[in-house]
Amino acid sequence: MASKSQSNFQDFLPLMAEKLGGDGLIGELCNGFQVLMDSDKGVITFESLKKNSALLGLKDMSDDDLYNMLKEGDFDGDGALNQMEFCVLMFRLSPELMEQSYFLLEEALQSEGFQDFRFPL
C-alpha cells in the first residue's frame, strides 16, 4: 500500500534530464547525494536521510518510507547508500526515465548490428 507521501510524488527526473542533458543530470544527482549524506561517513545513512530529507521536500515521509527507500537501494547490504547506489536508485524510481534509458540502449545496440534486439517492457 502506498503512503500519502508516495502517492503525491512527482517525478522531475525526466524533465531534468531533458533540460540538463546526461552529464548535468548526473551532476545534480551527485549534488543531491551530498545534501543527504552523513558528512563523517561519506554515505547516506537512515539518520542522515531522515535529518536532511526535508531539504529536498521529503519532510512528510514516514520512517518506514525512508527505511524502505534506503533498503531498496542498498545493493551491498551495508545499511547505507554510497553515491553509485543513490544514483541507480534515483533512476529506478523514475519509470519514465527508465523507459527512455531502455529506448536509448536499444537504439544503440541496434545501430551496432543487433537489429533484432528489443527490451521486453
TrEMBL record:
Pfam families, per the entry: EF-hand_8
KW Calcium (keyword) present: yes
PROSITE patterns hit by this protein: EF_HAND_1, EF_HAND_2
Gene3D superfamilies reported in the protein's UniProt record: EF-hand
PANTHER family, sorted: CALCIUM-BINDING PROTEIN KIC, OS06G0683400 PROTEIN
Keyword tags: Calcium
Domain (EF-hand): residue spans on this chain: 61-96
Name assigned to this protein: Calcium-binding EF-hand family protein
Cited InterPro entries: EF-hand-dom_pair, EF_Hand_1_Ca_BS, EF_hand_dom, KIC/PBP1/KRP1
